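pinging the channel bc i need a second pair of eyes. not urgent but kinda urgent?? the chain im working w is below, pasted from the shared doc
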Amino acid sequence: MHVVRAGLVEVLRGQLGIEVVGQSADGASVLETARRCGPDVAVLDIDMPGLDGIEVAGRLRDRLPACRTLMLTALDRPGLLRRALDAGAAGYLLKTATPGELASAIRTVAAGGRAVDPRLAEQSAALCRNPLTAREAEVLRLSAAGAGAREIAADLFLSVGTVRNRLSTAVGKLHARTLVDAVRIAERNGWI
Protein backbone atom coordinates (compact mmCIF):
# COMPACT_ATOMS: atom_id res chain seq x y z
CA MET A 1 0.00 0.00 0.00
CA HIS A 2 2.90 2.37 0.66
CA VAL A 3 3.97 2.11 -2.99
CA VAL A 4 0.45 2.88 -4.21
CA ARG A 5 0.12 5.83 -1.86
CA ALA A 6 3.54 7.17 -2.85
CA GLY A 7 2.64 6.88 -6.53
CA LEU A 8 -0.63 8.71 -5.99
CA VAL A 9 1.14 11.50 -4.10
CA GLU A 10 3.69 11.82 -6.91
CA VAL A 11 1.00 12.05 -9.58
CA LEU A 12 -0.99 14.61 -7.59
CA ARG A 13 2.03 16.78 -6.80
CA GLY A 14 3.96 16.44 -10.03
CA GLN A 15 1.55 16.17 -12.92
CA LEU A 16 -1.50 17.80 -11.44
CA GLY A 17 -0.13 20.56 -9.21
CA ILE A 18 -2.11 19.58 -6.12
CA GLU A 19 -0.44 20.16 -2.77
CA VAL A 20 -0.39 17.02 -0.62
CA VAL A 21 -0.08 18.06 3.03
CA GLY A 22 -0.13 14.65 4.71
CA GLN A 23 -0.44 10.89 4.35
CA SER A 24 -1.74 8.10 6.56
CA ALA A 25 -1.36 4.34 6.41
CA ASP A 26 -4.58 3.46 8.25
CA GLY A 27 -7.98 4.81 9.15
CA ALA A 28 -7.20 5.73 12.74
CA SER A 29 -4.15 7.83 11.84
CA VAL A 30 -6.10 9.77 9.19
CA LEU A 31 -7.95 11.63 11.94
CA GLU A 32 -4.75 12.74 13.66
CA THR A 33 -3.04 13.62 10.37
CA ALA A 34 -6.04 15.68 9.24
CA ARG A 35 -6.20 17.48 12.57
CA ARG A 36 -2.49 18.29 12.39
CA CYS A 37 -2.29 19.20 8.68
CA GLY A 38 -5.72 20.78 8.07
CA PRO A 39 -6.32 19.58 4.49
CA ASP A 40 -9.12 20.97 2.34
CA VAL A 41 -9.81 17.45 1.01
CA ALA A 42 -9.00 14.03 2.46
CA VAL A 43 -8.73 11.34 -0.23
CA LEU A 44 -9.74 8.06 1.43
CA ASP A 45 -10.06 4.44 0.41
CA ILE A 46 -12.97 2.50 1.84
CA ASP A 47 -10.79 -0.55 2.44
CA MET A 48 -8.21 0.75 4.95
CA PRO A 49 -6.68 -1.04 7.92
CA GLY A 50 -8.39 -0.26 11.20
CA LEU A 51 -11.27 2.14 10.63
CA ASP A 52 -12.71 1.92 7.13
CA GLY A 53 -12.95 4.99 4.92
CA ILE A 54 -16.68 5.42 5.46
CA GLU A 55 -16.22 5.51 9.24
CA VAL A 56 -13.34 7.97 8.83
CA ALA A 57 -15.44 10.21 6.55
CA GLY A 58 -18.14 10.39 9.21
CA ARG A 59 -15.67 11.20 11.95
CA LEU A 60 -13.97 13.86 9.82
CA ARG A 61 -17.36 15.44 9.10
CA ASP A 62 -18.07 15.62 12.84
CA ARG A 63 -14.61 16.64 14.07
CA LEU A 64 -13.20 18.69 11.16
CA PRO A 65 -16.14 19.99 9.13
CA ALA A 66 -13.87 22.17 6.97
CA CYS A 67 -12.14 19.03 5.66
CA ARG A 68 -14.18 17.48 2.86
CA THR A 69 -13.71 13.86 1.84
CA LEU A 70 -13.35 12.08 -1.49
CA MET A 71 -13.47 8.30 -1.60
CA LEU A 72 -11.03 6.74 -4.09
CA THR A 73 -11.74 3.03 -4.14
CA ALA A 74 -11.89 -0.13 -6.21
CA LEU A 75 -15.26 -0.99 -4.65
CA ASP A 76 -17.87 -0.19 -7.28
CA ARG A 77 -20.98 -1.05 -5.26
CA PRO A 78 -23.83 1.45 -5.34
CA GLY A 79 -24.71 0.66 -1.73
CA LEU A 80 -21.23 1.69 -0.60
CA LEU A 81 -21.56 4.92 -2.56
CA ARG A 82 -24.78 5.68 -0.71
CA ARG A 83 -23.23 4.81 2.67
CA ALA A 84 -20.22 7.02 1.92
CA LEU A 85 -22.41 9.97 0.93
CA ASP A 86 -24.59 9.44 4.00
CA ALA A 87 -21.43 9.53 6.14
CA GLY A 88 -20.50 12.90 4.69
CA ALA A 89 -18.23 12.09 1.76
CA ALA A 90 -18.48 14.74 -0.98
CA GLY A 91 -17.06 12.49 -3.67
CA TYR A 92 -16.74 8.87 -4.72
CA LEU A 93 -14.39 7.90 -7.52
CA LEU A 94 -13.17 4.52 -8.68
CA LYS A 95 -9.47 3.73 -8.91
CA THR A 96 -9.96 3.24 -12.64
CA ALA A 97 -10.30 7.04 -12.97
CA THR A 98 -7.61 8.87 -14.90
CA PRO A 99 -5.26 11.24 -13.07
CA GLY A 100 -7.07 14.16 -14.72
CA GLU A 101 -10.46 12.88 -13.49
CA LEU A 102 -9.05 12.52 -9.98
CA ALA A 103 -7.62 16.05 -10.02
CA SER A 104 -10.91 17.43 -11.30
CA ALA A 105 -12.82 15.57 -8.57
CA ILE A 106 -10.45 16.86 -5.85
CA ARG A 107 -10.85 20.43 -7.10
CA THR A 108 -14.64 20.07 -7.30
CA VAL A 109 -14.85 18.71 -3.77
CA ALA A 110 -12.47 21.41 -2.46
CA ALA A 111 -14.71 24.07 -4.04
CA GLY A 112 -17.74 22.72 -2.17
CA GLY A 113 -19.18 20.54 -4.93
CA ARG A 114 -19.85 16.85 -5.28
CA ALA A 115 -17.91 14.48 -7.54
CA VAL A 116 -19.34 11.00 -8.07
CA ASP A 117 -18.53 8.36 -10.65
CA PRO A 118 -21.43 8.79 -13.12
CA ARG A 119 -22.05 5.08 -13.65
CA LEU A 120 -22.26 4.42 -9.94
CA ALA A 121 -24.47 7.44 -9.40
CA GLU A 122 -26.91 6.06 -11.95
CA GLN A 123 -26.91 2.61 -10.35
CA SER A 124 -27.28 4.13 -6.90
CA ALA A 125 -30.34 6.10 -7.96
CA ALA A 126 -32.03 2.82 -8.87
CA LEU A 127 -30.99 1.16 -5.61
CA CYS A 128 -33.47 0.76 -2.81
CA ARG A 129 -32.71 2.22 0.59
CA ASN A 130 -31.25 -0.11 3.17
CA PRO A 131 -34.21 -1.92 4.75
CA LEU A 132 -32.18 -3.14 7.74
CA THR A 133 -32.09 -1.39 11.09
CA ALA A 134 -28.63 -0.64 12.48
CA ARG A 135 -28.93 -3.57 14.91
CA GLU A 136 -30.08 -6.00 12.19
CA ALA A 137 -27.14 -4.95 10.03
CA GLU A 138 -24.75 -5.37 12.96
CA VAL A 139 -26.04 -8.86 13.75
CA LEU A 140 -25.88 -9.82 10.06
CA ARG A 141 -22.33 -8.42 9.75
CA LEU A 142 -21.17 -10.49 12.74
CA SER A 143 -22.86 -13.56 11.30
CA ALA A 144 -21.11 -12.94 7.97
CA ALA A 145 -17.81 -12.89 9.85
CA GLY A 146 -18.54 -16.40 11.12
CA ALA A 147 -19.96 -15.70 14.57
CA GLY A 148 -22.75 -17.95 15.79
CA ALA A 149 -25.90 -16.78 17.56
CA ARG A 150 -24.46 -17.39 21.04
CA GLU A 151 -21.26 -15.48 20.26
CA ILE A 152 -23.21 -12.57 18.74
CA ALA A 153 -25.52 -12.52 21.77
CA ALA A 154 -22.55 -12.34 24.13
CA ASP A 155 -20.81 -9.62 22.08
CA LEU A 156 -23.92 -7.43 21.85
CA PHE A 157 -25.40 -8.22 25.27
CA LEU A 158 -28.55 -9.69 23.73
CA SER A 159 -30.35 -12.95 24.28
CA VAL A 160 -29.77 -15.77 21.79
CA GLY A 161 -33.48 -15.61 20.91
CA THR A 162 -33.22 -11.89 20.10
CA VAL A 163 -30.22 -12.54 17.84
CA ARG A 164 -32.07 -15.31 16.02
CA ASN A 165 -35.12 -13.05 15.62
CA ARG A 166 -32.97 -10.22 14.21
CA LEU A 167 -31.30 -12.59 11.76
CA SER A 168 -34.67 -13.99 10.71
CA THR A 169 -36.07 -10.49 10.26
CA ALA A 170 -33.05 -9.50 8.14
CA VAL A 171 -33.53 -12.56 5.92
CA GLY A 172 -37.20 -11.63 5.46
CA LYS A 173 -36.56 -7.95 4.78
CA LEU A 174 -33.99 -8.82 2.12
CA HIS A 175 -36.32 -11.39 0.53
CA ALA A 176 -33.54 -13.94 0.88
CA ARG A 177 -34.01 -17.70 0.96
CA THR A 178 -31.30 -18.30 3.55
CA LEU A 179 -29.00 -16.44 5.91
CA VAL A 180 -26.16 -16.95 3.41
CA ASP A 181 -28.29 -15.29 0.71
CA ALA A 182 -29.11 -12.41 3.07
CA VAL A 183 -25.41 -11.83 3.76
CA ARG A 184 -24.64 -11.91 0.02
CA ILE A 185 -27.43 -9.42 -0.76
CA ALA A 186 -26.45 -7.08 2.08
CA GLU A 187 -22.74 -7.17 1.14
CA ARG A 188 -23.45 -6.62 -2.56
CA ASN A 189 -25.54 -3.56 -1.74
CA GLY A 190 -23.07 -2.20 0.79
CA TRP A 191 -25.49 -2.50 3.72
CA ILE A 192 -23.02 -4.47 5.86
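so Residues 2-125 form a domain with the Rossmann fold fold (CATH 3.40.50.2300). and The chain has two domains: 2-125, 134-188. — does that match what u expected or am i reading it wrong
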